[in-house]
Amino acid sequence: MQNHLTRRGFIGRAAAGSVALTWLGAGRAPTVFAAEASKPALLGGTPVHRGGWPPWPTWRESWEPPIIEVLRSGRWYRGDGEHVAEFETRYAQLLGAKRCLATASGTTALLVSLHVMDVDAGDEVITSPFTFIATYNAILINKALPVFADTDPATLTMDPASIESRITERTRAILPVHIYGLPCDMDPINAIARQHKLAVIEDACQAWLAEYKGKKCGVLGDLGCFSFQNSKHIPSGEGGAVTGDSDELLDRCQAFHNCGRPFGNLKGQGYFTRGSNYRMQQFQAVLLMQQFDKLVRETAIRRENADYLTAQLSQIPGIRPARLPENSRGVWHLYPFAYDGQQFNGLSKNKFIQALSAEGIPCSNGYHEQYNDGLLDEAIASRGFKRLFSAARLKAYRESFRELKGNAQVCANTVAVFQSLLLAERSNVAHIVEAIQKIHANSAALAKPA
Ligand SMILES: Cc1ncc(COP(=O)(O)O)c(C=O)c1O
């Protein structure tokens, strides 16, 4: 059975696992016989890692007073306080963006951006299939077609070479996703967009502080979108942001996310545009502002440990860490690697994940081939999509998923370790390497049918 453990479910499980593992570790004799230590935990041996892992999310008592102050003020909504606006100024500064708009979530950041970049009913948007499902949904909710570029198995992001063949006269935008905080190769993507006069909206929902050629993700295209949902490196339960360098675009984003009320240079025109309510609350902004320093500090730690893992894991046959584009820095929302069962005596990926989890290393599958799940069939069978697109286009669209060979490979091969493990002491991070080495050494026994 496929292990479709989701990233969000995985956090809960990783946290629960750390409690169980701590308890197991505490109950065992400190001396472990070599034979037991080398026997895979899945076959009854001792787990390589028997302590817990850093919990996620975490908070500090010092964060409480400003939150209580907002609570007691009764000024909770954006229009009645200064915190959201202050957050926007400071988040823009952190990223080197001219402007930022805070939103209720990453999904609403994407909805705002797609609307403002004039993605309309019947348009097409080229995006990555290897992403959280919100990327698909934001395009579909605009009654546009998410057309999938293929995934580069080396980088796990959109393969720029697969974009041009997918452009039609309906294409309005390219929506690259910096998945797991791994920057997309933006130069060729931007060049294609310029040549075909397409907007570029970055899904940077997992890429806070990731960098490409000296600039932060989220300021590499026309607009960038971020999420601050609970699992994220800077969480506020729910929350999001749009970033960019154009005052005109950001004024439009502001207006659209606030029921179409005029803003900035658009002032004085009454309800000049459509809009919705995608506003962030004051509580969320206060919580987020407390975490800027923590985000910077923890990003550096995750990077150091990810670099260590990449150097070590590259030496194990059958394990291939993700490659970053030249001159870029990831932030590792998950630490992914490609797993080749052939190098592990035919041990299936699911069994490898079970074995690694049993060694005390919580891990999960990457995204699966979500375009086969039914949501796109449901969308293209709807009255609206049938009115907007020809039957021939929808048929060709549905059939095009079979061409996503790189993505199919990535979905089949990827194993991912949750980000909070990268915040552990180096001696514990080394357990990830040791556990995989142990599984490799014992793969013949593990691969045997039970
Ligand atoms: C890549 C990606 N896009 C979009 C989203 C949507 O963000 P949110 O959950 O804040 O709506 C997420 C959040 O998980 C994400 O990871």
Record field, number of beta strands: 14
What's the helix count? Answer: 17
Trace the largest sheet across and list its strands.
1-9-8-5-4-2-3
Which range best describes the helical content: under 10%, 10-25%, 25-40%, 40-55%, 55-70% or over 70%? 40-55%
Bound molecules: pyridoxal-5'-phosphate
Structural class by SSE content: alpha/beta
Radius of gyration: 23 Å
- Spans of 5+ residues with little confidence (pLDDT < 50)? 1-32
Strand content: 5-15%
- Average residue-wise pLDDT: 92
Shape: globular
Brief descriptors of the model:
alpha/beta, globular, disordered N terminus, 14 strands, 4-stranded antiparallel beta sheet, binds pyridoxal-5'-phosphate, 450 residues
What does this structure look like?
α4 (83-95) crosses α9 (282-289) and α10 (292-313) packs parallel to α16. α6 links the parallel β2 and β3. 40% of the residues lie in helices and 12% in strands. It has a seven-stranded mixed β-sheet, sandwiched between helices. The protein has a four-stranded antiparallel β-sheet with strand order 10-12-14-13. It starts with 6 loop residues before the first helix and ends with a helix. It is globular, with a radius of gyration of 23 Å. It is built from 17 helices and 14 strands. The longest helix is centred in the C-terminal third of the chain and has 22 residues, at 292-313. The chain is of the alpha/beta class. Pyridoxal-5'-phosphate (PLP) binds next to α5 and α6. Pyridoxal-5'-phosphate binds at residues 105-107, 131-132, 134-135, 177, 203, 205-206, 227, 229, 240.
